[in-house]
């Protein structure tokens, strides 16, 4: 944010990049080549089914929490309008790609507001610098401020089946 409360140039550019399909699709090819380990453990690829087409779809997303070996929490930076989010609401049966591993079957569950607040608080505590940089971008993308509670960020738990 700038002194007058408007988003910084960096936040505006980053928010535009999140909406640019070619930019967001590039990591998919890296995961499909089983080279996802280059992203470390904070990123995974989600395979989901198109709610209208029935076709396989892919999204590379940041991991907000990985408290259990068989579960990950991810966030929709574009809110509830993200296509992957709308698709998992229609069909929660997904596959998860992590590191260089083969895809594994999982079930997606949208976290309630309290669970999402706890997950976001834990993320802020673990990664304060990343949150400081990411927060203005997400606020620009969503068009609303992100406070300490009642987060507007939809979060999803992926649990291996």
Helix percentage range: 25-40%
The strand line-up of the biggest sheet is 1-2-3-6-5-4
Q: What's the alpha carbon Rg, rounded to whole Å?
A: 15 Å
Oligomer: single chain
What structural class results from the helix and strand content?
alpha+beta
CATH class: Mainly Beta
CATH level-four homologous superfamily name: Electron Transport, Fmn-binding Protein, Chain A
What's the β-strand tally? 6
CATH topology (fold) name:
Pnp Oxidase, Chain A
Largest sheet: 6 strands, antiparallel, barrel
Protein name: Nitroreductase
Organism: Mycobacterium bohemicum
Pfam families: F420H2_quin_red
GO molecular function: oxidoreductase activity
Description:
- InterPro entries: F420H2_quin_Rdtase (IPR004378), Split_barrel_FMN-bd (IPR012349).
- Pfam families: F420H2_quin_red.
- It comes from Mycobacterium bohemicum.
- GO terms for molecular function: oxidoreductase activity.
- This is Nitroreductase.
- There is one protein chain.
- 37% of the residues lie in helices and 27% in strands.
- Strand 4 (93-98) and strand 5 (104-110) form a beta hairpin.
- Strands 1-2-3-6-5-4 form a 6-stranded antiparallel β-barrel.
- It has helices at residues 9-19, 21-32, 83-90, 113-126, 128-142, and strands at residues 43-49, 56-68, 71-75, 93-98, 104-110, 155-160.
- The chain has a single domain (28-160), classed as Roll (Pnp Oxidase, Chain A), CATH 2.30.110.
- The radius of gyration is 15 Å and the shape is globular.
- It has 161 residues and is of the alpha+beta class.
- The protein is built from 5 helices and 6 strands.
């Amino acid at each position: 944010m700038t002194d007058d409360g408007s988003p910084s140039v960096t936040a505006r550019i980053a928010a535009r990049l999140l909406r640019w399909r070619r930019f967001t699709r590039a990591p998919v090819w890296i995961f499909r080549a089983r080279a996802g380990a280059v992203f470390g453990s904070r990123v995974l690829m989600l395979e989901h089914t198109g709610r209208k087409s029935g076709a396989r779809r892919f999204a590379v997303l940041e991991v907000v929490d990985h408290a259990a070996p068989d579960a990950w929490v991810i966030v929709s930076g574009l809110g509830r309008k993200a296509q992957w989010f709308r698709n998992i609401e229609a069909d929660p049966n997904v596959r998860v790609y992590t590191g260089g591993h083969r895809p594994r079957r999982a079930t997606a569950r949208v976290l309630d507001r309290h669970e999402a607040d706890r997950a976001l608080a834990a993320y802020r505590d673990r990664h304060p610098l990343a949150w400081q940089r990411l927060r203005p971008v997400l606020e620009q993308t969503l068009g609303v401020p992100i406070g300490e509670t009642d987060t507007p960020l939809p979060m999803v738990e992926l649990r291996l089946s």
